[in-house]
Amino acid sequence: MNEEGQMRLPREIVGDRSEPSPTHADAGTDNPNEALAEELTTSDGFVLTHRLFSLRTLLSFLFALALIVFVFRSLNIDIGQTFYHMRNANPFWLLTAFGVFYLTFPLRAIRWRILLINADVPIAAGRTSWASLPALMEYIYLSWFVNCIVPAKLGDAYRGYLLKHNGQVSFSATFGTIFAERLLDMLALFALLVLSGWLTFGASLPEGTQIVFAFGGLLVLTIIAGLASMRWLSPLIHRILPQRVHRVYGNFEHAALRSFRPAVLPQLIGLTAAVWLLEGFRLYFVILALAQEGLILSVPAIIFVALASSLLTALPITPAGLGVVESTVTGVLILFGVDRNLGSAVTLLDRLINFWSLIVFGFLLYLVSKRK
């Protein structure tokens, strides 16, 4: 934070010249790595408001808006009828969907804590305020808020910065655990997506869904290839990288690989599966809220649509997949035979929960947070 209260991210996000070890940094200024970290967190990086109003961010929002308008017009969606369905949604089931979505955050915090401990990031077993489960939940929520207002998934880097800034631990080691978390998410998401797709469509996938599977498969292969490269090609990677980034990359590699120690894999898999099943049931309750409007879908089909929606948020083109998600999910619902106006109502209500609520509550949290 600078004197004006604006959020800054350190240069470590794009690469730095030095990096503290994975152990807790010394409190004194005699430690050169600590001094450098202090310099980076106060004088370098980016200001959130500058990123928010940067040309790239503004163009991403304009692209998202143009895409939504184009697709909704192409599908002949009646906005008035869409809002009519939204107004008639059952508020009880919408609140249930809201609660189910927010239940994923403590589960994500527990999982991240396990990854951090596995990676030897010294979070003092959660006994200090900066590493407690509420603190980890706050870091995750603020990072999701940033992902919703700027493109390129910069919220993930901000989460790493928050833990470093508050606990003076290695940014690159922390980011290695976030990479491991993303790998777990992608593997679980894609596995559940394939299972729900098979239960829904059988062996014959509709043409519109093949793009979703292809994108998901490509992401999974890319991440696994990256992890395998770190495991088997580490000496070669160190020879290729400049000497000044060896320590940074070494901390990242150590954390990413240590995160998957076999002893805790069952816990990580269970927590990850629970998170993504809750994501599916979020959409289930949104659809249940519109059941009186004649909307009926099978549970596997609902889970498939919800996971496809989550998968598309990985696209770095727009903040949290804005525009891409709305367009694709509405189109997939229409493929299932849902009325186009009712399908757009489902999409917009769901995005009120998993996108716009993050912006509203994330902004309020950012204003009052002492850990930002």
If you had to describe this structure to a student in words, what would you say it looks like?
With 372 residues, the chain is an all-alpha fold. It has one domain. The chain contains 15 helices and no strands.
Which structural traits does this protein have?
single chain; 372 residues; mainly alpha; 70% helix; 0% strand; disordered N terminus
Task: Offer a concise description of the structure.
With 372 residues, the chain is mainly alpha-helical. 70% of the residues lie in helices and 0% in strands.
Whole-angstrom Rg = 21 Å
Structural class: mainly alpha
Helix content: over 70%
How many strands, what sense, and barrel or not for the largest sheet? none
Report the average pLDDT across residues.
81
> What percentage of the residues does DSSP assign to strands (E)?
under 5%
Whole-number total of structural domains: 1
The rounded distance between the terminal residues' Cα atoms is 7 Å
Oligomeric state of the chains in view: single chain
Q: Say how many strands there are.
A: 0
Low-confidence stretches: 1-46
Shape: globular
Order of helices and strands: HHHHHHHHHHHHHHH
Number of helices: 15
Task: Provide the fold topology.
Blueprint lengths: L31 H12 L4 H5 L2 H20 L4 H9 L3 H28 L14 H17 L4 H14 L3 H31 L5 H26 L1 H7 L5 H13 L6 H25 L9 H14 L11 H12 L4 H29 L4
Helix pairs in contact: 4-15, 5-6, 5-8, 5-12, 6-7, 6-15, 7-8, 8-9, 8-11, 8-12, 8-13, 12-13, 13-14, 14-15
